[in-house]
Amino acid sequence: MMTDFVSNEVAIKVRGVVRLTRWREYVPFVIPATVFGALLAARASQQTTLDWRLLVVILANILAVGYGFMINDIEDAPDDAREAHRAARNPVANGELTRTQGWMASGSVAAVTLILYALAGIWPFIIGLLTLSLCHLYSWKPVRLKAWPVTDIVSHSLMLSGLLFLSGFFTYGNNPGLVWLVALAATLISAYGQLYNQLRDFEMDKAAGLNNTAIIVGKRNAYLLMYSSVAVAVLLMLYALYMQVIPLWIVIVPLLIAPIMLFSRTPTRDMRGSTTTDISGTMQVQLLLIANLTIAVWLVVTMLLRIR
Q1: Contact, 32 vs 97, CB < 8 A?
Q2: Neighbour count for residue 308 (Cβ, 10 Å)
Q3: Among candidates 198, 65, 222, 29, which has minimal Cα distance to 139?
Q4: CA distance 274 to 276
């Protein structure tokens, strides 16, 4: 009887730790961002073969972002506990885990993450250390980068896109050149995502007295920044294609699947499952799926060519 009780308690704690990572919210974009960077490094060198380190750096990036989500929910637990729907998804707020257990779990994740980055190489380790630092400082209350204008967008964009891309690249390359422009494009796409989230929660955040970037600049300017981020990112990607940093043939993949994805059905929810607030929100899921399929095809072709 006691054994069953202990086993049940352990199962609850393990489930709580897994839920604390909120892995479903970021794995679909962490993997392609990492692989994209590695593929550009392999293309730049013409000699590099993608090996076991790709899996290592993918896992490291997933755990690094997971660490950020864990810190966020630990620090936000007192506020989340005041609202039933937010408490239900936060295992610290609903008592599934204690705050101490949450910190112990997140510390363990950080330690494993650093080991994995070290296995990938010195530069991935340095970039990974920066990623973990931003993930920590983003939500940690003594600093809380997400509570300040500009730093909320910059830190979010780097830790959830730009640095993930660069860790993938520097696992196999050390001379980015024009790849820096692609890294900037990836960062700007993430900036769009953060501004979109802030605009979605604009009224609620304003009522709560927050001073994030969208609230400081106002709705109209925030929308301008959001769409400008996308526009500049697209231009940078097109330039990368023109300069053959990205192979031209890969454009065939999205051109073939985009019409099917974008016009088959118009979704009413964005990537996080919330009701869409503008036209860009209705395309988030399909565009992410198109990006994943495109990078997957590129990876398969690269691996097959290296085998030959």
Answers
A1: no
A2: 5
A3: 65
A4: 6
Rounded Cα distance, 118 and 285, in Å: 33
How far is it, in rounded angstroms, from Cα 235 to Cα 202?
28
The CA distances from residue 83 to 12, 54, 256, in Å, are 22, 40, 45
- Exposure string over 172-211, b if 16+ CB within 10 A, otherwise e: bbeebeebebbbbbbbbbbbbbbbbbbbbbbeebeeeebe
Q: What are the helix (H) ranges across 121-248?
A: 122-139, 151-157, 163-172, 179-200, 202-207, 213-217, 219-242
Other beta carbons within 10 Å of 212? 24
The percent of the chain in helix, strand and coil, each rounded to the nearest 5, is 80, 0, 20
For 132, counting Cβ atoms within 10 Å of its Cβ (0-12 exposed, 13-18 middle, 19+ buried), the class is buried
* C-alpha–C-alpha distance, residues 209 and 230, integer Å: 28
| Tokens 């925030």 -> residue | 222
**In the block, which residue shows the tokens 């393990």?**
14
- In the DSSP assignment, the letter for residue 43 is H
pLDDT confidence bin for 263, thresholds 50/70/90: low
Q: What confidence score (pLDDT) does residue 308 get?
A: 45
Cβ contacts of residue 57 below 8 Å, gap of 6+? 34, 38, 116, 117, 120, 124, 167, 168, 171
Q: Are 48 and 25 in contact (CB under 8 A)?
A: no
- Which DSSP state fits 161? I
Report the length, in residues, of the chain: 308
DSSP 44-73: HHSS----HHHHHHHHHHHHHHHHHHHHHH
Mean pLDDT of the chain: 90
199: its two tokens: 């605009």
> Which residue from 119, 117, 147, 112 is spatially nearest to 130, judged by alpha carbons?
117
Q: In one letter, which amino acid is 80? A: D
- Mean pLDDT of all residues in 60-64: 98
